[in-house]
Amino acid sequence: MHQLSFISTARPGAAPIDVEAILASSRRNNARDSITGLLIYDGKRFLQELEGSGPLVEAAFSRIKNDTRHRATVMLSFREVDDREFGAWDMACQKVEAVSGDGSFGDMVDNLVDQVPDANTKALLSSFVRIKR
Ligand SMILES: Cc1cc2nc3c(=O)[nH]c(=O)nc-3n(C[C@H](O)[C@H](O)[C@H](O)COP(=O)(O)O)c2cc1C
After folding, report:
1. How far is it, in rounded angstroms, from Cα 3 to Cα 33?
2. Tens digit of pLDDT for each residue in 13-22?
3. Most exposed among 31, 46, 89, 91, judged by the fewest C-beta atoms under 10 Å?
4. Taking a C-beta distance cutoff of 8 angstroms, is the pair 45, 129 a contact?
5. Global pTM exceeds 0.85
């Protein structure tokens, strides 16, 4: 069982991102692949957790990376876990208010990034999410 987390930035466009449409295909595919997880969107950025069989999680991530609705995808972690943390959710979604500077999105990422062993990587990721775009 593997767990993958990544952050990305919604591609600015004429139309706002349709998160419901993303969730509809996510829930369909993830149910098929026994992938569970969580998607957080703050109006600008995404943070997603995917967990399930390693190869299936990797396959989902390579599809997701190529999606033109977002860009600057950065994997925060890919690690083996004993149990699912988001077991009951095919793809829970939380929309958080857009935050500026050191708001809750950055704190949330910090909590995830705590698991990254390398201090430099940790610092890089933590500052990445606080860049104002
Ligand atoms: C931020 C973001 C998160 C996504 N998460 C998932 C996901 O968890 N599972 C999934 O299958 N597709 C996800 N997608 C959609 C994929 O990029 C892709 O459009 C989809 O898997 C294609 O599936 P379909 O061929 O069944 O329409 C996500 C897209 C974005 C932009």
Report:
1. 14
2. 777 888 888 9
3. 31
4. yes
5. no
